[in-house]
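User: Please go through the entry that follows and flag anything odd:
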Amino acid sequence: ERLLIIGSVKNHRERERGILVYPVYSRRSNGLSMGINLYPDDKHCSFDCPYCEVFPFKTDYTFSLEQMEADLRQELSRMIQLNVPVKDICFSGNGEPSISPNFSKALNAASLIRDKMAPEAEMVVITNGTGLLSPGIFSVLCQAANGAMRLKIWLKLDAGTPEWYTEMNRSSTPYQSLIDKIKEFVSLAPVSIQTMLCSVNGKEPIPEEVSAWEKLVLELTRIGMAANPNKGNVRDIQIYGKARPAPEDPLAEALPQDYLDTRKASLEKAIAGAGLALLIQTFP
């Protein structure tokens, strides 16, 4: 109720009206997340996921760094006045933030404002990983995750096979090129892996896909532990279900909570069997 009073966005549709900064209740943050949208004019993404919640839209807005900074200060001030804690400042919005030409400057600007106004809030970027194929973005994310910014990188990994990747993400980025770059990044910087579980065309992931995904998560976890024996560079796994309407519904549909729980239990067994430890969470 408190979040409704302050006008938080529960379904992210405010992003589609040209807004640069928007408060939203985040189930994965378990509280108020201050979203930053680098695409107020149109959707821009290197994936075309059938479960994507961004509806088609066009506006005359253009991204302005100065306006983003002003809006972020205003929204943080409002939360301070209302005594509402901000869990994180999160780059997501109407597409893949890391491929925006404004990403690096916006990230640094938001981090400086966070440091002054909401130092307890985390900096988060939700990414599908395709930006990692750019050496410049790879370096920016690596430095931000390892440095004083303490950037939390929530990295999408929806598929363990090229076939399911084609169904779930429908991207022109070659699957193996993306996976190879993710492995390289995990050897250098910490990430949280997030996986959407839903059905596509009435089909849930087949057993071979489930097995391949678990094997890939294990490999990434081992790479992360070799690079960082104390904490591991794969910090946690976020398994989440389809909870918001999408323009292509019912192409993608939510799976029962029991399915998510079963996948979590299966991965936990595989992780334990490999002698590893990893936090695994599900979000329906």
